[in-house]
């Protein structure tokens, strides 16, 4: 791998998500962004199946040839049988453990996953236009109510919304013709990362039915069973598991959410108390809740943060939010990055081999020349907006590091220490 100009400065490891050979953003372009690593996965392998060593090795070879490191797997999906505790649970758990062994055997040791039921993540607008003309992802609870009530027809969904939201939902639904309704539904049901499952509304209804009697306690019990099965394997082979928080971090579709707050993270770590049972610290997901203090969470859970997604959201009083600029919105990004750098310094001082925390910019705006290109198959993952985010966070890290060598002169002046 070539020398990176900032390689001697102990910043977070700079990554970029890559969806594999079908990604319209090639590895050569990722290398040019300044990233030295990628977060990627074998999306061609069906959920619940074992990842063969040969396929892992082939992906590694492709990354190495491009001068990039596979810093984190994103993700090894958790099959719905595991989440619901029904169906072929034992086989899915064993296959997950075998995949961890195969990844470790090939030298890949950080694995991101999530435990969100049915839909991995939800946005209602894939091309929301910002005042500067760039496009971003947005969530509008009234539009999601339109999906639940008028398209999915989930029983009792109306109880989860205010009268104002219900009125807005009906008006929005009536404003759409048949083609627009189908496109809106597809945007909500076919956003599984890296693959198109082609789920219909009936498929979603069938998936929801499996959770009918589960509830919060049942979902947490199934997470416990998963962790109790795979964490010992992770410990044995040196894998660091990093759960991604709920996105958005509040109940949707009448289903429980079990990783949305600091208290949820505490419960997770207490469930199986092991360094291998860790967190993917996604500032975008956590930031949607105003009761989440992100810098405090980064410090509180620092030793168990195995990967980070650094992005920001802009919250609004009506419950909507959109993806903000990486250094804007509702996240105090300088304070978060400062906390992560301090945690990294502690690791390095103790001689930990895995001292460097990999991060990637997440959900960039579609901007500049990317606006003229076909929409990316994975919404939020055009190149230029994420490159801007990576460059901004790189500059923030270098600025924070430079400030460490300055001492106050008094007033607003500084001198080199």
Gap from first CA to last CA? 33 Å
Alpha-beta content class:
alpha/beta
Strand order of the largest sheet: 1-2-3-4-7-8-9-12
What is CATH's topology name?
Answer: TIM Barrel
Strand count, sense and barrel status of the largest sheet are: 8 strands, parallel, barrel
Shape: globular
Q: What is the averaged pLDDT score?
A: 94
Please characterize this protein's 3D structure.
- This protein is of the alpha/beta class and 417 residues long.
- It has one domain: Divalent-metal-dependent TIM barrel enzymes (TIM Barrel).
- The strands form three sheets. Strands 1-2-3-4-7-8-9-12 form an eight-stranded parallel beta barrel, surrounded by four helices. The protein has a four-stranded antiparallel sheet with strand order 5-6-11-10.
- Helix 2 links the parallel strand 2 and strand 3.
- Helix 12 runs parallel beside helix 13.
- 43% of the residues are buried.
- The model has no long low-confidence stretch (mean pLDDT 94).
């Amino acid at each position: 791998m070539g020398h990176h100009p900032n390689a001697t400065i102990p910043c977070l490891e700079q990554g970029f998500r890559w969806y594999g050979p079908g990604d319209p953003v090639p590895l050569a372009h990722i290398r040019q962004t300044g990233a030295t690593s990628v977060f990627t996965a074998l999306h061609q392998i069906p959920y619940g199946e074992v990842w063969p060593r040969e396929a892992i090795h082939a992906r590694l070879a492709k990354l190495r040839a491009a001068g990039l490191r596979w810093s984190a797997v994103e993700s090894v999906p958790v099959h719905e049988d595991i989440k619901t505790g029904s169906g072929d649970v034992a086989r899915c758990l064993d296959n997950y453990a075998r995949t961890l062994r195969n990844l470790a055997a090939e030298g890949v040791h950080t694995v991101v996953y999530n435990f969100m039921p049915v839909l991995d993540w939800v946005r209602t607008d894939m091309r929301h236009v910002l005042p500067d003309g760039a496009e971003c992802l947005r969530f509008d609870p009234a539009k999601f109510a339109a999906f639940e009530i008028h398209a999915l027809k989930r029983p009792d969904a109306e109880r989860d919304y205010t009268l104002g939201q219900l009125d807005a939902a009906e008006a929005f639904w009536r404003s759409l013709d048949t083609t627009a309704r189908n496109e809106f539904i597809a945007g909500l049901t076919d956003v599984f990362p890296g693959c198109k499952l082609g789920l219909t509304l009936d498929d979603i209804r069938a998936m929801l039915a499996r959770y009918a009697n589960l509830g919060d306690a049942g979902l947490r019990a199934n997470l416990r069973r998963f962790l109790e099965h795979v964490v010992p394997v992770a410990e044995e082979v040196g894998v660091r598991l990093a759960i991604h928080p709920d996105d958005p971090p509040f109940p949707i579709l009448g289903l429980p959410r079990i990783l949305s707050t600091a208290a949820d993270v505490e419960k997770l770590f207490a469930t199986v108390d092991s360094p291998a049972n860790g967190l993917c610290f996604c500032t975008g997901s956590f930031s949607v809740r105003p009761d989440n203090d992100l810098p405090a969470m980064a410090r509180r859970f620092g030793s168990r943060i195995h990967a980070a997604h650094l992005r920001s959201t802009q919250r609004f009083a009506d419950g909507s939010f959109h993806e903000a600029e990486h250094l804007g919105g509702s996240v105090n990004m300088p304070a978060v990055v400062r906390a992560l750098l301090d945690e990294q310094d502690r690791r390095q001082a103790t001689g930990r081999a895995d001292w460097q925390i990999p991060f990637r910019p997440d959900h960039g705006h579609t901007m500049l020349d990317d606006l003229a290109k076909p929409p990316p198959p994975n919404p939020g993952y055009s190149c230029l907006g994420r490159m801007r985010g990576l460059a901004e966070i790189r500059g923030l890290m270098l600025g924070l590091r430079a400030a460490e060598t300055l001492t106050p002169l008094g007033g607003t002046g500084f001198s080199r220490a």
